[in-house]
Specification:
The chain has about 260 residues and is of the alpha/beta class. The protein contains seven helices and seven strands; from the N terminus they run H-E-E-H-E-H-E-H-E-H-E-E-H-H.
Length: about 260
């Protein structure tokens, strides 16, 4: 069983309505992952049992979709990932991604907004939509989360969907992140422990219903990344570095306007 929590009585061991391609992919990935890693899964009780919701996940390695994806799949609510559009053009892989309901992101093109539309439709159908808020791998050399782009905040505020922060750690030991100074912490003959932890929904209640401006999106993004980083501190068993602490003056969505008004 898993370290940190046990399987719920109603959890399926075979499938969960995700479709045969998703089931086969999860079964194959699970077999491969178990051969090289152990699992430490925590906080799945925070994942909603029904209704659409967003998960915001830190991104450190090409192995992340397997580490987090299996955690999410075995909750009974498989994730629909937002992923780079070129992956959907790869023969066989692209067809499989579409079959599983994943969502292509056409960056820096006239179709860039399509992903938001598709994600909203998935949320309306009651799906879990998984987002890497940073948009790519973290640029932090020690693999702490970096700044969020606006996509997950906009989705949350425009749809009202809850945002569940998820932190993961040690996937980089399977596939090291480029530019990272973090190294494998155990001998090669000991299996990596893939740690994944979900937390309670990020509180965005005071931002919902407001005009969606750049400061509001920035504030929502800061809260989401702070929640992920707090979970990651627990998984890594160490505090975040000072550079990742939120400055006291960044207290809310109106702070920028307040500073401008004061300067005037």
């Amino acid at each position: 069983m898993l370290q940190g929590e046990t399987r719920s009585a109603g959890e399926s061991r075979t499938g969960n309505g995700a479709g045969p391609v998703y089931w086969f992919t999860a079964a194959l990935a699970g077999t491969l992952v178990r051969a090289v890693a152990r699992r430490d899964w925590r906080g799945r009780h925070h994942l909603p049992a029904s209704g659409g919701y967003l998960t915001a996940v830190n991104h450190t390695s090409y192995a992340d979709p397997f580490s987090y994806g299996l955690f999410q799949y075995h909750s009974g609510r498989p994730a629909r990932f937002l992923g780079k559009a070129p992956l959907f053009s790869v023969p066989v892989l692209g067809a499989a991604l579409r079959s599983m309901g994943h969502i292509p992101v056409h960056r820096r093109t006239s179709r860039a907004s399509d992903a938001l539309v598709d994600a909203k439709e998935a949320l309306a159908r009651g799906c879990c939509v998984a987002v890497y808020p940073e948009g790519t791998f973290t640029d932090d050399p020690e693999l702490w989360p970096s700044r969020a782009k606006t996509g997950v905040a906009r989705l949350a505020l425009e749809t009202g969907a809850p945002v569940i922060p998820v932190a993961q750690w040690n996937a980089h030991e399977l596939i090291p992140a480029a530019g990272s100074v973090v190294r494998r912490s155990r001998p090669w003959y000991r299996r990596t422990v893939l740690r994944v932890m979900a937390g309670p929904p990020v509180d965005l209640s005071d931002l919902r219903g407001r005009e969606i401006t750049a400061p509001v999106l920035e504030e929502a993004g800061l809260r989401i990344m702070d929640a992920i980083t707090t979970l990651l501190e627990e998984l890594r068993e160490e505090p975040r570095p000072a550079r990742k602490s939120r400055p006291a003056h960044e207290a809310g969505p109106d702070s920028r306007e307040d500073r401008r008004a004061g300067a005037a």
